[in-house]
């Protein structure tokens, strides 16, 4: 194989393009990323296959991921949990920025399934409403329980003191 052919072959087969960060000291291998995120390595490989997670390939061929990949995997899991498909995630993920809401929507291409995204957004809003109602109910329950457990004020000789409100 000629040197030019080897370079062309290498250029078409290597997977060193990474959108989340550069190779560095904080890089982890796929098993470490799996342990840090609670997501199986096999599933991380699937995310790579469908184009929603991009590893760096080290010279020995191992997949490595930077620290931002941990947040990215959590973000992918959250989007899947609220019902987005991997296709939808592939379209919108580059535009979402970080999970903290650092969005870059103006730089993004048009999504193929806007109606599907709108339905999913409606679903997310309904889930948020339910979660907020449950949060308020649990907080009220805890306040009630804490008030019930509060010691009753008594005098030095053990007589209950009535407190007027």
The rounded distance between the terminal residues' Cα atoms is: 92 Å
Largest sheet descriptor: 3 strands, antiparallel
- Helix percent reads 40-55%
Unreliable segments of 5+ consecutive residues: 1-23
The H-and-E topology, N to C, reads as HEHHEEHHH
Average pLDDT, rounded to a whole number, is 77
Strand content: under 5%
Backbone shape = elongated
Number of helices: 6
Rg for CA atoms: 26 Å
Adjacency order of strands in the biggest sheet: 1-3-2
The number of strands is: 3
- Given helix and strand content, the structural type is mainly alpha
Task: Briefly say what this structure is.
With 165 residues, the chain is mainly α.
Walk me through the structure.
With 165 residues, the chain is mainly alpha-helical. The chain contains 6 helices and 3 strands. A 3-stranded antiparallel sheet has the order 1-3-2. It is elongated, with a radius of gyration of 26 Å. The N and C termini lie far apart (92 Å). The model is unreliable at 1-23 (pLDDT under 50).
């Amino acid at each position: 194989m000629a040197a030019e052919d080897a370079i062309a072959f290498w250029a078409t087969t290597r997977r060193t393009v990474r959108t989340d960060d550069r190779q560095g000291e904080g890089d982890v291998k796929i098993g470490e990323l799996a342990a840090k995120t609670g997501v199986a390595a096999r599933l991380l490989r699937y995310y790579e296959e469908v184009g929603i997670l991009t590893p760096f390939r080290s010279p020995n061929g191992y997949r490595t991921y930077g620290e931002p990949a941990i947040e990215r995997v959590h973000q992918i899991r959250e989007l899947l949990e609220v019902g987005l498909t991997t296709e939808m995630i592939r379209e919108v993920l580059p535009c979402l920025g970080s999970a903290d809401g650092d969005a870059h929507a103006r730089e993004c291409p048009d999504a193929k399934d806007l109606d599907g995204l709108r339905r999913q957004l409606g679903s997310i809003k309904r889930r948020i409403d339910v979660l907020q109602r449950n949060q308020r109910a649990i907080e009220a329950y805890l306040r009630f329980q804490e008030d019930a457990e509060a010691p009753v004020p008594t005098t030095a000789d053990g007589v209950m003191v009535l407190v007027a409100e």
